[in-house]
Amino acid sequence: MNRNAQFQNAYRGGKSYVSPLVVTYVLPRRKGRVRYGITASKKIGCAAKRNRARRVIKAAVFELLPLAEGAYDLVFVARAKTAEAKSTAVYEVLYGQLRKAGVIADEASFLFGKV
């Protein structure tokens, strides 16, 4: 996702899942594939911290996207603790949020041996 309107639709119409590391907005779509966007506001800190937060989230998302079923718009919002967190911690949080949202099936953990 790269347009402001797409992010706004996800914020308004999507369901949010909150953790101390990441906030995830999930908006189901009728057809297509999974689209995602990552944001980090200036509240997180300087540009280096914001970039690290986005990189950590992006690494986790790339591992989780093959497990996704259906068509969704996903927005991941970095929080202050994201920049200091390990990528494995962010992966576990995102995995739990996406499984709770129904984006990833419960059986996916058995198939791929994750978490």
Can you tell me about this structure?
With about 120 residues, the chain is of the alpha+beta class. It has a single domain, classed as Ribosomal Protein S5, domain 2. Helix content is about 40%, strand content about 20%. The protein is built from four helices and four strands; from the N terminus they run H-E-E-E-H-E-H-H. Helix 2 crosses helix 3.
**Tally of distinct domains:** 1
Number of strands: 4
Fraction of residues in β-strands = 15-25%
Low-pLDDT ranges = none
Q: Assign the CATH class.
A: Alpha Beta
For this structure, the quaternary state is: single chain
Radius of gyration over all CA atoms, rounded:
13 Å
Distance between the termini: 27 Å
H/E element order: HEEEHEHH
Query: Biggest sheet: strands, sense, closure?
Result: 4 strands, mixed
- Total helical segments: 4
Instruction: Label the CATH architecture.
Output: 2-Layer Sandwich
Fraction of residues in helix = 40-55%
Globally, the shape reads globular
Give, in spatial order, the strands making up the sheet with the most strands.
1-2-4-3
Class based on secondary structure composition and strand pairing: alpha+beta
What is the average per-residue confidence, as pLDDT, rounded to a whole number?
Answer: 91
Task: Examine the coordinates and then state which fold CATH places here, giving the name of the CATH topology.
Answer: Ribosomal Protein S5, domain 2
